[in-house]
Amino acid sequence: RKRAGGGGEWTKKIKSEGMGEIITRSHMRGRRWIELGQEQQRAYVMRLLDALEVTDRDKRLKVARAILYLAQGVFDECDTDTDVLHWSRHNVFLLYDMGVFTALLELLSMEMDNNQACSSAVRKPAISLADSTELRVLLSIMYLMVETIRLQTEDDRPEWRTAREAFKTELGSPLYNGEPFSLLLFTMVTKFCSMNAPHFPMKKVLLLLWKTILFTMGGFEELQEMKVRGRERLSLPPLPEDSIKVIRSMRAASPPASAMELIEQQQQAKRGRRSRRPLVKQDSLDTYNERDPFKNDDARDEEEDGEEADSGIEGEVDPLDRDVIIQPPPPPPPLRPPTESASLPKGLPWAPKVSDTETLVGLPRPIHESVKTLKQHKYVSIAEMQIKREEELQQCPMTLGEEDVDETPTEILYLGMLPNLSQYVIALLKLLLAAAPTSKAKTDSINILADVLPEEMPITVLQSMKLGIDVNRHKEIIVKAISALLLLLLKHLKLNHIYQFEIVSQHLVFANCIPLILKFFNQNIMSYISAKNSICVLDFPHCVVHEMPELTAESLEAGDSNQFCWRNLFSCINLLRILNKLTKWKHSRTMMLVVFKSAPILKRALKVKQAMMQLYVLKLLKIQTKYLGRQWRKSNMKTMSAIYQKVRHRLNDDWAYGNDIDARPWDFQAEECALRESIEKFNSRRYDKNQNGEFAPVDNCLQSVLGQRVELPEDFHYSYEMWLEREVFSQPIQWEGLLQQAQ
Questions:
Q1: How far is CA 456 from the centre of its chain?
Q2: pTM (global) more than 0.90
């Protein structure tokens, strides 16, 4: 949002050459856009739409840039940032009302099918910004329209609210060549990753894809509301709490002591000095009136096991890691009425759940008499009801009939993605791997920098620094878009039907998503969270409204004033949540976390003092504790205490004391094959319309069957007698056998 989707070089051109000579004033007889009336503005947009249909490529690009200028808020006529945002919102709704989005979609489809541009890009040794100019302009306009219309404000006009709902329905419906708009963008991703269109600007495509899915399906708050309504339809008891509010009320805690801190404390103790107490400023973080589990008040409590000390990748403790707590940034002006704040509970934050009332493992003997009470509080998820219903439909297809499936945006998108689902998943993971900070450049890897590298490489130190910041920022945005996109897809598919979620999860697992995410976190995570790959004075709309100060190497090196990069923190939380989704209740996948030695990597992520990120790290540690052994739990008691304090409890889960190292064989293939069989049965029953032939009713009436007209070949009457002799008269009939069978 800060750089308005990437019209950077275009906005500089406008500022230097003047708006009147380039785009609009020549068409509006010298009058300013903000001085025109509604009808005059509509007439001008209509002329732009007519000009979009010209065959001359340069003229068409010029008109598209004029539309981009309107969508960006006619900043040449504005004096403040607020004015730019106001006119941008006004113009975007005007453009949608005039049908500009449909016209842009036709141009985008034409650019996608431009074989000449694709073949030219494939032959080029180095692809630059110049190869994707038209695509970037089109995608920038479409991104601005989707994001602006998606966001609601209190002062929206009634016609704007109506337009928002119409646009949302339009994007989520199969109105574009029989498929939703998101599927078109998925196709662009796969074409890019298959090297058939290396000039596609992937950052813009991924951002637009993420925002489109967010708009059509809904965000986390809409998901929570849909979950509540879904439980009501299934006559399930309401949720015990709102998970979003619970997480927002949590506070961050101090991380466990690192190996370096423990060694330093021991050395100081040997010299007779008073042991240093790291992180002493965390007393105010004693959450829920309990002792902070991460407080390291005794140097003898060793937190780090030997394996972590050996495999650590950072050799020093970041100063940010000692006494700084990541707090949310100051809230922007409210776009919607503020919700009521959740008060901090005095006990544990989560209500416990019971998923099994038959097995009494983990419960003390006096509680055995309370099984009846447990059954009254048993938690049944929507997924369990969906699995049970699917089993009934598989067993009684004729009795229960066909299932009524709601045509929701999620269902429509899943149906469109299903034939090429594995290709979409692999393409997204390829892009995530290429953009990860821990990845090393390879000659055969995809080039995600095609829409950030200029035609002429920098020749000065200042230009090189600016390009380096742009490249890092470019990769961070790609990681952010992919992580948010995958998480949204998984959550919506799980709510729509559990087996839709399972097939996407299995494709992710088979494409090595679990080790990829662990590799992402196997870095100095505090450095990644506090990275400053942005230049404030170049952010939109500041760069086009205010005078540009002179950039120096010192100012670029200093970065912005923000202490943390919220973009990277957002990406880390999303990736942790995806990892949780993939491994939850999956024994074989949990064992993958153990085999890949994820515990030391995850414990290092606890250094980020942000409550939500710590919660999902602790969840991942909790599911592996009984596989890590008693010694690991003994040497990591503070982490175990943090899990107890912050993570939801399952009353009959033996995570804290079970030893399941050799109790069950790790049969990864068998578990995944059984799951795949259930998924294929579901897809075949619901989406394969040809498989219902064996269940068609059979006509048992002799008169009706003999009375049917059968089409025979023309030469049948010539060989009819031979057929009777061979097939009827010459075949002996065992009448005794028939009579015995009848008896």
A1: 35
A2: no
